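Notes from hallway chat w/ T.B., transcribed later so I don't forget. T.B. wanted the structure written out for a chain they're using in a teaching module, and asked if we could keep both sequence and structure tokens in one place. Agreed to drop them here.
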Amino acid sequence: MTTIDQDKQRRGRIQIILLAAVFFGPLLVAIGMYFFGDGEPINDGVNFGELVTPSVVLDDKQHFDTGLRGRWTLLLIMDGDCGDSCQKSLIDMRQIRLATGREIDRIERAVVTPAGPSILTDNTRAQHPGLRVFDDSVAVTPALREALATLSPRQLYIMDPLGNVVLRYPMNPDRKGMLGDLKKLLKLSRIG
């Protein structure tokens, strides 16, 4: 075989290898990204809150008649007076909402309590502007009251803009964890 034939054969092999790389390269990259990830995953499967099961879905007829619909809501369910743990939870809710930065307008804070607005002192109201307080026997519909009865009192919840109660937290949650969960939800959601 002459050197010219060897050069043609070598060029032909290189062309076949390049053609295979162009065809199989993106496929191999996609398989690698699927199995090994492409950096920080959006949903790494770790939530700091507990998923609410069975799910509590509040439809239009059950939802608060207060303008909360269409916004993410940090919801505190109370069963009595607002003591120290309640005060700390209100601060946690306020700080988590503030920490969302430019997403702050997508989030509301609400407290549902049998005592209604009288549960909060004037000083507490001044410290938490924009906090909505509902009397669970007056300000909500019977259907909503029944749905909320399935939620444990003295817990914090995240409710989506469609009225689905999504995650549950203890009264004094890990702020960083709850904020992380909320940011994931806001990032993945195109509503609210």
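Follow-up for T.B.: The chain has a mean pLDDT of 81. Might be a good example for the class.
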